[in-house]
Amino acid sequence: MRRDPNPPAGTVHRLTFESRVLRHNPLGDNPLRDIHVYVPHGHDGKGLPLLVDLVGFTAGGPAHTNWRNFTENIPEQADRLIASGEMPPALIAFPDCFTRLGGNQYINSAGMGLWDDFLRHEAVPFVEQRFSCGGAGKRGVFGKSSGGYGAMIHALLHPDFWPAAACHSGDMGFPLMYLPEFPDVLRAIAKHDNSIQNWLENFYAKRKVKDDEVHILMMFAQCATFDPDPQSFMGVRLPVDIETCEFIPERWNKWMAWDPLTLVESRAEGLKQMKLLFIDCGDIDQYNLVYGARRMRRVLQRLGVAHIYEEFPDNHSSIDYRMDRSLPLLAKTLT
Fold first, then answer.
1. Quick one: which H or E segment has residue 335?
2. According to the model, what pLDDT value does residue 35 have?
3. End-to-end CA distance of the chain, in Å?
4. pLDDT of residue 188
């Protein structure tokens, strides 16, 4: 998508917020957090809906307000959608939830920190008070990949707080997406005396990070999120046998408890009260997420939960253009 210089540009406010719930974060991450807030042209925010952007792994919210080559950032995308009349005016908040382990799944964790609490009890109230926006019935959450998981998990856990959610290529169907990653994890740590601590310390000492190393870091982040061990280095505990890569039932069951396909079975009634639940995924998603998304669609249909489900001809990468669908839907629903 090329930039359109014609729509009047909104304003991006670059704010900082000192979190109390992250003050003793187990990873030692800085509790002082950037929160960028997009306000549409001609508005001061008062009375408008609030949309909260949860970004994918390795990113922080402000990454979505940065200049991009060949395409739009999210504020520019919103400028175009609002100017065309496709999307009603809405504020968009971009909280920074980056961690030393490279990202976030946006839940409370003894290994990663109280990120659910940070979003609902600190970041959102801070933005709503500052701009007189959002409030009960006028908040929406959206995201892609790990951010899509965050949007979906917050819809499952807090439908009273988030009446609308959009999940783009979100993590679901854990056995298909996560278990295939563990052989690479074991091969990686084998080069460091089978020590997760040694691998991580070596990673942090590098001047250049490789893509395959980011995948290993991502799996350590999931370990510290879904089944943390506070006594282990950075809370990382593997759910598989380090020698045979067989999953350990007690450990893997802890992961599966956080799979949206598990949680939805007991939380359908909450989802039914939402104004909008949007789910999409690329039909050749390289992390097998389309199969989890299809399973979610079937479960939601069986449980009678209203939703919008879409597939599109693409993979997992560079798909922010799909927010041309979700942002107007969210804003219209909440206006």
1. none
2. 98
3. 26
4. 98
What residue ranges of the chain have pLDDT lower than 50?
Answer: none
Residues sharing a CB contact under 8 Å with residue 238, sequence separation 6 or more, in sequence order? 182, 185, 196, 223, 251
The CA–CA distances, whole Å, from 33 to 14, 56, 60 equal: 11, 17, 10
Domains of the chain: residue spans and CATH: 11-173+260-334 (3.40.50.1820), 176-256 (no CATH)
Q: Which residues pair with 65 in a beta bridge?
A: none
Q: Contact at 8 Å (CB) between 310 and 325? A: yes
Residue pair 273/287 in contact (Cβ under 8 Å)? The answer is no
Q: What is the pLDDT of residue 5?
A: 72
The pTM score is 0.97
In degrees rounded to 5, what are phi and psi of residue 204? -70, -20
Q: What is the CA radius of gyration of the chain?
A: 20
pLDDT score of 244: 98
Residue type, 325: R
**Closest Cα partner for 54 from 173, 132, 154, 172?**
154
Burial of 195 (0-12, 13-18, 19+ CB in 10 A): middle
Model pLDDT, residue 2: 57
**DSSP type of residue 208:** S
Question: What pLDDT is stored for residue 3 in this prediction?
Answer: 65
Digit-coded pLDDT (tens) for 138-171? 999 999 999 999 999 999 999 999 999 999 999 9
Distance CA 252, CA 297 (A): 24
Strand partners, 77: none
pLDDT score recorded for residue 6: 84
Q: Give the closest residue to 83 by CA, choosing from 73, 93, 75.
A: 75
Coil, strand, or helix at residue 194? coil
Kindly list the distances between the CA atom of residue 237 and the CA atoms of 36, 48, 49, 115, 263, in Å, as whole numbers in the listed order. Answer: 34, 43, 40, 19, 22
**Maximum CA pair distance of the chain?**
61
Distance, CA of 9 to chain centre: 26
